[in-house]
Structure formats: structure tokens, C-alpha cells
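Quick log. Single chain, no ligands specified.
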Amino acid sequence: MRSFEQQLPLPEPLDLLNEWEYLYERSIGCVGILKDWLMRALVSASRRNADLLTRKDLQAHALSVAQCDKMLSEAVEGETRLLESAEERSRLRTRLGLSPTENSRQDSNTGSTVPLAEVAAPRRNQRRPGQRRPVRDAVGVPGPIYANAGTL
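-> predicted structure:
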């Protein structure tokens, strides 16, 4: 809040920290919404040549309770969609023709159970991207380098 206060080009900025609950309520905790809201209030105050921003200015430009409630519902729904449940994963695996639960394989060295996802195929040579494999291109094979090389 203090950083927003410091950015307000007013001789006496509103103490936003004292208004934190109202600001949180009407921005649902989203900094971008708060920033846009403060800008709208600041533009309004500057148009009427006010030297300070008041709670009345904030109230005049705050999103409505209905808008905030809808945004909060959408945010919660979006977060819920990002979480995957064991039931959804089981359904996906069944549709793919896999067993509903991930099989495990015993590690021959330790005897402990290791998920198949962790038992990856051994990696081949660790080359840097763009580094060619030595057996790919024949070396020392005579032939023209350029299309016009045979006519010189």
C-alpha cells in the first residue's frame, strides 16, 4: 500500500493503509484491479483540481459489490479447474486404455517400489544442442563442395 501512496502525485496522499479492508474488498486482493481503481479516482480528483484523494473518491470509482462477487466466483472457479483430482486422473487413464491407477515397478537394487514415471529410459550421450553425432556424416569423402565446382 505504501508504494501506491508514494506513487500518487498529490501533496497529501490518502493513507491507504487505513483503508486496506475496503481496498481489499473492492479489488478482491488483485493488485491490477487496485491500480486501475486508484488511477480512476486520481484522474477524477485531478479533473476537479483536488489536492488530495478521499475515501469518497475511492467509493465513487470502486467496482460494485456484484462485480467483485462475480470476479471472486470466477477466480475461485478457475483455481478449482487447475486442481486435478485422483478421480479425474483415474477416469483419464481408463479412457486412454491404461489401468486406473499407476502401476509401480520394484527397483532391483534396493527392492523398493518405484513409480513407472521415475523409471525412465537411460539417456544416450549427453551432447549440447546443435552438436552433431560423429557417425552421421562421412568424413573425407571426395566430391564437389559447390554445384559449380566441377566446371572450374
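The chain has a mean pLDDT of 77.
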